[in-house]
Write a structure and sequence with these properties.
heterodimer, A: about 240 residues, mainly alpha, 9 helices, 3 strands, B: about 150 residues, alpha/beta, five-stranded mixed β-sheet, two-stranded antiparallel ribbon, 4 helices, 7 strands, globular
Chain lengths: ~240, ~150
């Protein structure tokens, strides 16, 4: 972000930026930056909290009044209960042996049953919000569970999406599955914080179990990109228990 | 997905972020900003969000996607698992505060909002994004943008 600020400012555009990592800004010295103490993924504070979002927005725009720079300020005042928010840290530990794996056929049956429960809430959420973040994989919701369970077998499934590699499709399908569940659950529900949604997803859903099993299966996948994705920790969220 | 402080108990991920190789610059460029009430503003997010039909970001992508101020049905193709996604699933203003900007325009505090906004893939080496940043700047100027709000994720 700080690099982009340098390039745009060179082109005659005045920039102001939010920053999560204060030390990065101290090194890169963009013209105007406001450090915010929020959870990663929440630059303007909290969802559905327009007052907090506006406070952040006014604070970062206020920096445009500075006559010289670089300017680095901290977001003022008490802001959120982020320090209590464990995010997705409640995910269960990785499997340690093949003996812990589930029967894929039985797992798929459980996923289909769960899908029937989730789908009405998801459709209501999409209609209510007028949007959804599900879709990057290009795998339809009807095919999503079957596609992902296919990676628990010995043969790598075919890529159903055009214009992207199989590992990309797989990676985005994991995001789509999580988003499908959490978008459904957070609509008309008391579960809206990342902590609560994480506890529910990892602790109570078969989809959460599927992701843990996929992480284990991909450690020995014939596809080297999938093995690499597990190794560097980008396949599924991997935070301290 | 988690506040940076929490990542300290997961050292290699924390180090990935905190010890990222960073470019340094001899000086900081400075463009005088217009008074906010006269400014025309565009947003840049590094959330790798885009329209549903756009090409997905690959891990090597350093270019950008653009979308309209009224586009709400945005999806994300960001490979990182470092950031929370449940927040902006519920409220797009959490990463792209277009409704808040409209409120400032309505109140007379902000001049106007650009028709087009932009997204890059966060975590990319800044130098590799430079030529695409200049291209985005050209497009912004065509739309008479003079001010840019950069929104990380």
């Amino acid at each position: 972000m700080s690099g982009l600020a340098h390039f745009l400012e060179d082109d005659g555009l005045a920039t102001t930026t939010l920053a999560f990592v204060r030390s990065h800004v101290e090194v890169m010295r963009p013209p105007r930056a406001l450090w915010v103490p929020f959870e990663l993924g929440k630059p303007f504070g909290e969802p559905n909290d327009p007052a907090l979002q506006m406070r952040v927005l006014r604070a970062v725009l206020e920096l445009l009044k500075a006559r010289r720079g670089p300017v680095l300020e901290d977001f003022p005042g008490a802001v959120s209960n982020y320090d209590k928010d464990l995010g997705w840290s409640c995910r269960p530990p990785a499997l340690t042996s093949d003996a812990e794996r589930s029967d894929p056929v039985a797992l798929l049956d459980r996923l289909k049953a769960e899908d029937a429960e989730i789908r009405p809430a998801y459709e209501k959420a999409v209609a209510g919000r007028g949007r959804s973040t599900v879709g990057a994989s290009q795998v339809s919701l009807d095919d999503l569970a079957t596609f992902l369970v296919g990676f628990l077998g010995t043969e790598t499934p075919a890529n159903p999406a055009k214009g992207q590699t199989l590992p990309q499709t797989f990676r985005f399908a994991l995001d789509d599955l999580m988003a499908y569940y959490t978008e459904a659950k957070s609509f008309e529900s008391e579960l809206t914080s990342s902590t609560d949604l994480g506890r529910w997803f990892w602790g109570e859903t078969t989809a959460g179990r599927l992701l843990i099993e996929l992480e284990h299966a991909c450690r020995t996948s014939p596809n080297k990109t999938l093995r690499w994705m597990v190794e560097i920790g980008i396949l599924i969220p991997h935070y301290p228990e | 997905m988690v506040h940076l402080n929490r990542m300290k108990s997961w050292p290699w991920a924390y180090d990935d972020v905190m010890k990222l190789p960073l470019p340094t610059y001899e000086s900081t460029p400075w463009t005088a900003a217009k008074p906010l009430s006269e400014a025309r503003i565009a947003l840049i997010s590094t959330a790798a969000v885009h329209r549903r039909d756009d090409k997905r970001f690959s891990m090597a992508a350093r270019d950008y996607r653009s979308f309209g101020a009224d586009d709400k049905d945005l999806i994300q193709s960001h490979h990182s698992g470092d950031h929370d996604r449940t927040g902006f699933q519920q409220d797009l203003n959490l990463i792209l505060p277009l409704d808040r900007l409209r409120e400032l325009v309505d109140a007379g505090e902000l001049g106007s909002i650009a028709e087009t906004h932009y997204s890059f893939l966060g975590g990319s080496p800044p130098g590799d994004m430079e030529r695409f940043a200049h291209k985005a700047a050209e497009r912004m100027k065509v739309e008479a943008v003079d001010t840019v709000l950069l929104c990380p994720v």
